[in-house]
C-alpha cells in the first residue's frame, strides 16, 4: 500500500477547513433531477474550459496563448454579479474564445504565485504562456489588486489586450 | 512581476507533449452552439463531481468518505465503453452518490502515487480519507492493475465496498 500523503496537501487542507469554501452544490431541478455541473459554471457556456491548473498551463504553452484564471465561489454575491456581467459581455467572450486558455476554480491551488496579494474571490489572474504569472496586470482596487466588479468590464477587456502581448520567452 | 515557474510543471509539460492527450473538444451541436462541457463528462450526470484532486482530497477528509479517481480520455474507445457501462449501472451510481467523493480527469496530476503501475487509461484509483492511495484495490489485469473493462463492473462494485471499509487513520 502506498501512502499518498503530501505535506503540502496537509497545509492546503488546513487552510481549506478554516476558510469559507463552496460546498459541492446539489442543484435539484423541478423534476427531481440534478442539473449537471458544467466546467464553465456560468462564466461562458460556449467557451472551452480547462479543468485543472496543470491542464491549463499545458494548453497555454502548447497553443502559445495567455491563460486567464478566475477564482470565485458559487455562494458569493460579488462572484455572482461579476459572473453575470462577464458571461453577458460579447467582447469578453469573443476574445476569450479566440485568444485565451481559460480556467475557473472554486478551490485554491497549491501555487502561491496565483495569490500575489492573498486569496479572495472574485479574483482574475493572467498567466503568460512562458508560465509567468502576470502580477503586473491588475484591477482598480489597491487592497485587492486582482478583483473586478461588473462596472470594471472595460478595464478587464483592456487587461486582456495587455495579456495578449506575450512576454519574451526566456526558455 | 512574479515568475510562476515550477520545475515540476516543466516535467509535467514535457510528459504531456509526448503523450496522446485529449484535446479540448469543441462539441458543436446542430444549431451551431457548443454543448457545455460537464464535470461528469458522461460518467454520471446526476452525481456531484470534484473538479481537482486537491478539492477531492479536501472533501474526502471533510466528509470521511473514500475518493474514486477515474483517469480517462475522451477519444479512447476503452474509456468510452467503460464510461457507458459505468454510467448505466444503477448500483455503481447509487453507491457513488451516497458514499464516495468522485473525480474524473483527462489529464494526469503531479502526484505519482496516483499511477502505481504507470499512466494509462481507463484507470480507477481509490484513495482513503486518510489520504492513503489504496494501491491494494485492483482490477483483474496483472499488466494494468487499475484498469477495468465493461465486463468488470461487478468487480468494480465489490472494490467500492472494499474502499468503503476505511483504513484506521494514523493521523
Automatic annotation (TrEMBL), chains A, B:
Residues 1-22 form the signal peptide. Keywords: Endoplasmic reticulum, Secreted, Signal. CDD domains: AGR. SUPFAM superfamilies: Thioredoxin-like. GO terms for cellular component: endoplasmic reticulum; extracellular region. It is found in: Endoplasmic reticulum; Secreted. The keyword Endoplasmic reticulum applies. It comes from the Eukaryota. Belongs to the AGR family. PANTHER family: ANTERIOR GRADIENT PROTEIN 2 HOMOLOG, ANTERIOR GRADIENT PROTEIN-RELATED. This is Anterior gradient protein 2 homolog. The lineage of its organism: Eukaryota, Metazoa, Chordata, Craniata, Vertebrata. The gene is LOC120027451.
